[in-house]
Amino acid sequence: MNLRLPARTRRQAALQTAMNRAGQGQKLRALLMIAPVLLFLLANFVAPISSMLFQGVHDTALAALWPQTAHDLRRWDGVQMPPPELVKNFVQELRDTHNPAAVSELANRLNYDTVGMRSLVMHTLRHREVLDDAAPTASLLRIDPRWGDRDVWVVMKHAVGPLTSFYMLAAVDRRLDADGQVQFNPQQAIFIPVLLRTLWISAVVTILCLLLGFPVAYLLVGVPDRQANMLLILILLPFWTSILVRTTAWVVLLQSHGVINDALSGAGIVAHPLALIYNRVGVYIAMTYVLLPYAILPVYAVMKGIPRAPLRAAVSLGATPARVFWTVFAPQALPGVLAGALIVFVLALGYYVTPALVGGARDQMISYFIAYYTNQSLNWGMASALSIILLAATLVLVQFCARIVGNRAVLWRA
Fold this sequence. Notes:
By secondary structure, the protein is an all-alpha fold. The chain has helices at 4-54, 61-65, 67-75, 84-95, 100-113, 117-126, 136-143, 150-157, 166-171, 191-222, 225-236, 243-254, 259-266, 280-304, 309-316, 321-349, 353-358, 366-375, 380-406, 408-413; strands at 174-176, 182-184. Strands 1-2 form a two-stranded antiparallel ribbon. The protein is flat, with a radius of gyration of 31 Å.
């Protein structure tokens, strides 16, 4: 036996080596098969989004326009007034500037930090002919006395780049003061309320979709397959219509003299038209309608796979229908409920068209401001910072739901 053991061991080792090589070959072939898809996603999804998000922490406007001034500002401690050499280099570069559009872009960036910086920079640019290298500080003060304020230079120091925390701080209503401390920014104290409003609207729409979608999914499981297929077609039918058309239809239905108000008035239920549009009620109704199928389908898919034997066993043991539902059926349907809730909530977080059409000024979500900074204000840094905040909130939510699903049995018993 001892003489045969080494030969058997060698055969087992050779077999294991051959299996490992075969497995590596299969992995390589699988990787080659999905490589085109990965390259497509990388080129058309990952790279553009990453490039946009990078704008939220990237700031090179000042360094590109006035490189020597940016270099001197990085070396300046920001405690005292800037040294004469810094002011002299700034005056020289400002006087030699031949790109007013770039100066305007930089002035806008500085004005995001402190209101009044744009007027200061543009006014100085228009009167740069009086700037004097022999007395740079005095010539700047003759143009505008604000150049004698240390805070003005500190604002420029915050913009030297290439990396910046300005946009991310502004996205949470904060800014750096002249001493480098993070403080609340009353000039732009709007984004935290907007984020909370976005989370609230998304949560309410998610709850409404689950309350309406769970009974529908339960009905689909209980009816014969032929009827269930017809109902599924009706549920999926709205997907064949543009979301813009569907939202516009709600404008017709919900307006003061629309179908719903006319029907209620004709039936004598209301004496005056209800305010159902251009407010939060209209946003809830339209978004729930659009997102309802996303709640029904995951719940239905999970319910369809729940075996019926445990349900019949619980009934045979004397459990009431309500007890069977809550103790046997509902825990098994919980993953579908959480999946539907996650899908609806994530989609609702980034909704733009529906709140813009049926909501009022106080019902716009964070996606509205991202679109505004992207298309109208052309402030890509601010749009990117808000996108990062929204992405972070989504990732936290996904992680939270993953933990709940992983511990659903313990949570349900508790």
